[in-house]
Every structure is written in C-alpha cells, then in structure tokens.
TrEMBL record:
SUPFAM superfamilies: Calponin-homology domain, CH-domain. Residues 1-81, 109-212, 234-340, 358-466 form the Calponin-homology (CH) domain. It comes from Trema orientale. Residues 516-526, 539-551 have a biased composition (Basic and acidic residues). GO terms for biological process: actin filament bundle assembly; actin filament network formation. Residues 504-551 are annotated as: Disordered. This is Dystrophin.
Length: 551
C-alpha cells in the first residue's frame, strides 16, 4: 500500500490535483481486488498527465518490475520538471524568438527542445561558440554548464570552472555553483562526465526553474499572451492530446494545433481507431519539406473522415495545414467519439455473436438513467448538457450503481457550493479511473457541464460496466481479479448489452448518415455540423453532442 501512496503523491507533485486521495483504498489490509484498484488508479492517472503506459499493467506494479517502474517514475518526474517550459506558464520564453512565425514554431516544440533553445540562447550571449543539441555528449566536458552558470549567476560563478582542464573537476565546480541557486543534486560529477541524458536534462530544468535569465518585455509578453488559447480551447486541446498519446501511436504529440498540421499524426490515429483505413503508400512521413505533401496527407484525413460518416461540410485538408483550431478540435472530437462508440459497438457484437447495431448517444443516455434507477436512486440525466449534472451527484450514483462499494458516501458533498462541486467532480474522476476508465477530462468539465466530456465520461463508465462478469460488483473476497478482468466468455457478459438492442427496437431514433448524430427533433436546437462556411444552415441532430461549440 505505501507504494501506491508514493506513486499518487509523485503524480500529484507533477500535476497537482490529478489524484483525489479520498479515492485510494487505505485499509490496513487490502484484498487483491482493492490493491488492483489502487494500481489501476495510479496507471490511469499517469496516463492522464501524459505518461506513456501502453506496455505497463497493474501486474507489473504488483511484481515491482524495475525497468518498467523506473521508466514510469522517470516520465512522471520529467513531466514535473518540464511543466513550466511553455508560453502559457512562462510567457517570457517569447524572448527566444524574433517574430510570429518563430513563435508558432516555439509553440510546437517539445519541452526538451524548448529547454535546449533556452540554453543555447544564453550560451550564445555568453560567447560559447558550440551549439548544444543534446543532454549527453554535448555537455560531458562541463564547459557549456560553466558558461551557462557564469551568464545566469555571475555572483556565484567565476573563471575557475573554465580554466580547469579536468572535466571531472569542472563538473564538480559546476554542481557547487548550481547548489548556490538551490538546485537539487539530481546528479553527480560522474553523471555529467558520462553524459547521462535523463539526469542532465533534470539538471538543466532545475537551473531554468531557479534562474531562467529572461527579461520581461511588455510588448513581447502581450504578444505571447495573444498567442495562448482561452481556457476552454486549452482544456480541449489538452484532452485530445492526452487521448492521442494514450493510443500508443508512434508520434508523441506535444501541441495538438501544431503537431497535426502535416496530417501524419491524424493518419496514425485513424489507423488505430479504424485499422486499414489509411493508404500509407499515399502518405508522406515527417519531416515534410514540401507543403503540398502536407496537404495530401490532410486531404486523405478528410477523405477517411467522410468515409467514417464524420460531419465535414466544406472542410478541406488545407484547413488543417493552416492550423484552423476550431476545425481541428471539431475533427478530433469526432475521432474520439467515433472511437468510444466503436468500442461499445464491438462489445455489443461480441455479446450477440453477430455484427451489432450502431451505439447511439441515446443508447448511452438510456443506459445511464436505467442503471441509476435500477439501483434505487432518484437522480436522472435529461441530456448530456443537463445543468443539474454540475453537482456531480448523478455520476456518483452511476458509479455506485455499477460498483456499489466504490463510492465512499461519507466524503461526498451535496454539491451546493462551487467548492463542494469541485470536490465531487475531482472525486468522480479519480473513482472512475480507479475502476478502469481511461478518461482525460478535468473537474471543470463536470462543473461547467461540457457536453462533449460528459458524453465520454458516461460512455467510459458504460464500457467498463458492460465488460464485467455478472456478480463481479459484489466481489469483496480475496480472490484475484485478474481472471475476471481478462474474461472473454460472452456468457458472463452483462445482459445489458443485448438489452440495448431491445431498446433500439422500441426507439423511434435511427442513425443518420453522420456518425452518432441521430435524428431527434426535440434535441436539435443547438446542434451544428463541422463546417467552414459562416451561417451554413444547421442540420437536424440527435440530443447527443455538438460537433463543435456554438460561438
């Protein structure tokens, strides 16, 4: 148990508030199921802050496999160390570039590259003639560090570190100078001399945090603030970025708006959620120098989107190349939604032994309401934009209905004040992750009732629930959960999956040509297709979700 507490605290240090510690099972003696829940919470939370955990499972944590644990811990530490290396957190970074085009390039750089750019910026001003391109061989002799510290903290440094010919002695002097800036000793002189990349990166990040040496130019600062996104856009970008990285694609996304513009990342995502849909012979892999190759990639993205019945009115590949944020977010939303609905459809197909009918937003809504009602609770959800959802009570009752022992009602608030709503929302997210839901929303998405994220949260709980063998909810024995989690026996799948088909037969809704946008006249007032034409007449949609937010 101490190891999960340590993991949770480490994740919360990296990204404060990620794990609600009220959701951790903290009894003196935990049965295997409860330990598994704690490990699942840790892994899903690590995924939710940007860690790659594709090849790490709860059993790896139980067995304490060193290389996997060290890899996970190093990712968490790296996220914490590099958290401020972006224009939103440190707008002074705009000093590293000269014009707006360079700012766009800076926005798309991974944090490690921004750190190198920052380091070379100061080294050049200090007269260091070499270019540092990595945190290994280029810093082994310690000269770059000596120049950097002399430039940033001349009061603590001096010519002695440059005069010495012994790399080990210079490395030791560098660390002594850094210690005067309160930099923690992540590494030894030997680590510098041997060029340990992770430890050297951590060392440079520490220097940046304590003394970045950047000035506050009011004009440049205001320009940097103009380049950053509003809160809603930032949250959606974060959600889609984390979701893409959780899929295990070859390309790691650092900034959605910049990284998707060549089309390659979107093709990788499409190939993951709809295998075989991408014609790789017609795709160009980065780095792509010729602009028309980027347009070709993005044109194929749009073509596949239309084949998957996405709502794409007057949208062309060039809109993605140009970085149209509104269209990019709307397209990514349809990708995420399609992926979730396909998972549910495949589960239905498995339970029925034949190709299942499309899962609709209405199905998900009905399932959630029926689940809560059958558990003897009274709250209901009118739609995925029902403002009453902001207090979190419905989702806590839904989680309790799929796993009665998972919610500790003694820590739940009435959700009447903003503070109480946030406490409930934070708890909901951690409890859902603890069960096994892979979700990337923030408490604000629940409090503000972001209908897109509300749909994904509900669908994720549904997907987890329908995979559980009958009676598993009541399992509190010491029997290992491993067998039940991996069960492929369709006989033990909940009858709720096939019951959805019965509900379909009784429903008046039918699937429209646009995926998941079922015709339902009473729910159509705020729906609007993804388009690139102002004042285009909106088509009739189902209750579910706007493909883009109304502006």
């Amino acid at each position: 148990m101490p190891e999960i507490i340590s993991c949770s605290k480490l994740i919360n240090v990296a990204v404060p508030g990620t794990i609600d510690e009220r959701a951790i099972n903290t009894k003196a003696v935990l049965n295997p199921w409860e330990r598994n829940e704690n490990h699942t919470l840790c892994l899903n939370s690590a995924k939710a802050i940007g860690c790659t955990v594709v090849n790490i499972g709860t059993q790896d944590l139980v067995e304490g496999r060193p290389h996997l644990l060290l890899g996970l811990i190093s990712q968490i530490i790296k996220i914490q160390l590099l958290a401020d290396l972006n224009l939103k957190k440190t707008p002074q970074l705009v000093e590293l570039v000269d014009d707006s085009k360079d700012v766009e390039e800076l926005l798309g750089l991974p944090p490690e590259k921004v750190l190198l750019k920052w380091m070379n910026f100061h080294l050049k001003k200090a007269g260091y003639e070499k270019q540092v391109t990595n945190f290994s061989s280029d810093v082994k002799d310690g000269e770059a560090y000596a120049y950097l510290l002399n430039a940033l903290a001349p009061e603590h440094s001096g010519p002695a570190s440059l005069d010495t010919k012994d790399p080990a002695e210079r490395a030791n002097m560098v660390l002594e100078h850094a210690a005067k800036l309160d930099c923690k000793r992540y590494l030894t002189p030997k680590d510098i001399v041997e060029g340990s990349p992770n430890l050297n990166l951590a060392f440079v990040a520490q220097i940046f945090q304590h003394r970045n040496g950047l000035t506050v130019d009011s004009k440049k600062m205001s320009f940097a603030e103009m380049m950053t996104d509003d809160a809603q856009t930032s949250r959606e970008e974060r959600c889609f970025r984390l979701w893409i990285n959780s899929l295990g694609t070859a390309t790691y996304v650092n900034n959605v708006f910049e990284d998707v513009r060549n089309g390659w990342v979107l093709l990788e995502v499409l190939d993951k959620i709809s295998p075989g849909s991408v014609n790789w012979k017609q795709a160009s892999k980065p780095p792509i120098k010729m602009p028309f190759r980027k347009v070709e990639n993005c044109n194929q993205v749009i073509k596949i989107g239309k084949e998957l019945n996405f709502s794409l009115v007057n949208v062309a590949g060039n809109d993605i190349v140009q970085g149209n944020k509104k269209l990019i977010l709307a397209f990514l939303w349809q990708l995420m939604r399609f992926s979730m609905l396909q998972l549910l459809k495949n589960l239905r197909s498995h339970s029925q032994g034949k190709k299942g009918k499309e899962i609709t937003d209405t199905d998900i809504l009905k399932w959630a309401n029926n689940k809560v009602k059958n558990a003897g609770r009274t709250s209901q959800m009118d739609s995925f934009k029902d403002k009453n959802l902001s207090n979190g009570i419905f989702f806590l009752e839904l989680l309790s209905s799929v796993e009665p022992r998972v919610v500790n009602w003694s820590v739940v608030t009435k959700g009447e004040t903003d503070e109480d709503k946030k406490l409930n929302a934070t708890y909901i997210i951690s409890v859902a992750r603890k069960l096994g839901c892979s979700i990337f929303l923030l408490p604000e998405d629940i409090i503000e009732v972001n209908q897109k994220m509300i749909l994904i949260l509900t669908a994720s709980i549904m997907y987890w629930s329908l995979q559980q063998p009958t009676g598993e909810s009541e399992n509190t024995s010491d029997e290992s959960p491993a067998a039940s989690i991996g069960s492929e026996n369709e006989a033990v799948l909940s009858n709720e999956v096939s019951n959805l088909a019965i509900a379909d037969a009784a429903s008046d809704t039918t699937l429209s040509p646009e995926v998941g946008n079922e015709k339902s006249s009473e729910k159509a007032e705020n729906e609007e297709p993804l388009q690139n034409v102002e004042n285009e007449p909106p088509s009739t949609k189902d209750e579910g979700i706007d493909t883009q937010d109304k502006e």
